[in-house]
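Task: sequence design from structure.
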């Protein structure tokens, strides 16, 4: 049977993990895989999460299944975090998932059941796994421009012009904040214009909210989701808890469905659970329990909020320091866009052959499209990184 298969192409991001790990050079820099790192290059366990873990260890009495919908307390906590009081709860349904990718996959499965002929509009560029997940669900896809030609800002006029082709019932995939890989985000006025277009075209937003809290702050980063929830009859949202709670390996996320009415919401939820059951049966519990404990304890929640803000501030500081280092070394403001972007990522503007030279000649690891994870860059590595980039791009 397997002799008919050709080797699958390697994942462009995950394959870097092995290459970086096997590189013996002590000065190597990892800007590939999108995880937060502190000034020492560690991905720390947040103190609030560590305390929740201790409490869970002392209080947990069973390892039995939760069911395909997961932990209702976790889902309610994430609904409050994402939607606040802006979504009509009678029309909102949710399921805990294995990470944000799990949420994307079962929501795509739900779309395929509910509207298999609908076109899903996807920004260019987008997270590398979006297109793979959509293809796996068998959904038709069209793309639209998102970044300008240099990749340093939102090509908003071109984006809106191309989205005029959206038909009634189509799905529009949107990064809720902190665009991955571009880093350039829509402002509030632009989100308002997108909401106008979706309402006018009778289209449905599909929001991927993976980095809430890493852009402008928790509430600002949820602006688009809350706007759509107020104004539009239907939407779907995929949420990741990996980044803002620092629980990457616990694979914790949530899928939300907003329907036009309670009966439709119940029907959609039943099919969402079928998609979950078919995909992975039950979600893992540990990370969801930690989030629920942190959210429901006032002191732990306050501690978590302070830690998350410190992480966001650290990334902002790295962005500013890197932009200034480029300006000083290059004698130009070409790289100022790095300081203007939000979240963990920016596109450097390098070509694939330059990325290979960065890896081979300078032990600098980044994705072939030039995406850099700013949270992976230690302050003491900034100078070496700038020198390496300028060496391969001049």
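Answer:
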């Amino acid at each position: 049977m397997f002799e008919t298969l050709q080797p699958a192409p390697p994942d462009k991001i995950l394959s870097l993990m092995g290459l970086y790990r096997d590189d013996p050079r002590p000065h190597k820099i990892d800007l590939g895989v999108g995880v937060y790192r502190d000034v020492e290059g560690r991905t720390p366990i947040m103190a609030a999460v560590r305390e929740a873990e201790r409490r869970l260890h002392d209080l947990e009495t069973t390892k039995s299944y939760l069911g395909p919908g997961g932990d209702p307390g976790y889902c309610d906590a994430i609904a409050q975090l994402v939607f606040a009081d802006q979504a009509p709860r009678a029309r909102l349904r949710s399921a805990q998932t294995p990470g944000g990718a799990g949420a994307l996959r079962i929501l795509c499965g739900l779309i395929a059941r509910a509207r298999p002929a609908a076109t899903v509009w996807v920004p260019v560029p987008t997270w590398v796994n979006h297109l793979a997940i959509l293809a796996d669900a068998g959904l038709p896809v069209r793309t639209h421009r998102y970044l300008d030609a240099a990749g340093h800002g939102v090509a908003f006029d071109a984006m809106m012009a191309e989205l005029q082709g959206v038909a009634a019932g189509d799905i529009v995939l949107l990064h809720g904040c902190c665009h991955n890989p571009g880093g350039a985000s829509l402002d509030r006025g632009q989100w308002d214009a997108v909401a106008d277009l979706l309402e006018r075209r009778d289209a449905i937003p599909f929001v991927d909210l993976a980095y809430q809290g890493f852009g402008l702050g928790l509430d600002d980063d949820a602006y688009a989701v809350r706007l759509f929830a107020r104004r539009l009859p239907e939407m779907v949202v995929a949420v990741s808890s990996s980044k803002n709670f620092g629980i990457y390996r616990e694979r914790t996320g949530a899928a939300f469905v907003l329907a036009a009415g309670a009966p439709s919401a119940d029907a959609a939820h039943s099919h969402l659970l079928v998609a979950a059951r078919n995909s992975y049966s039950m979600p893992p519990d540990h990370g969801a329990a930690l989030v629920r404990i942190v959210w429901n304890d006032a002191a732990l929640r306050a501690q978590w909020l302070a830690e998350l803000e410190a992480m966001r501030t650290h990334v902002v500081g790295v962005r500013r320091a890197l932009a200034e280092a480029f300006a000083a070394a290059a004698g130009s403001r070409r790289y100022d866009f790095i300081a203007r972007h939000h979240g963990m990522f920016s596109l450097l503007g390098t070509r694939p052959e330059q990325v290979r030279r960065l890896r081979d000649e300078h032990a600098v690891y980044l994705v072939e499209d030039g995406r850099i994870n700013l949270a992976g860059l230690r302050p003491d590595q900034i100078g070496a990184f700038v020198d390496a980039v300028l060496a391969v791009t001049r």
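The domain at 7-45+300-393 is CATH 3.90.1150.10 (Aspartate Aminotransferase, domain 1).
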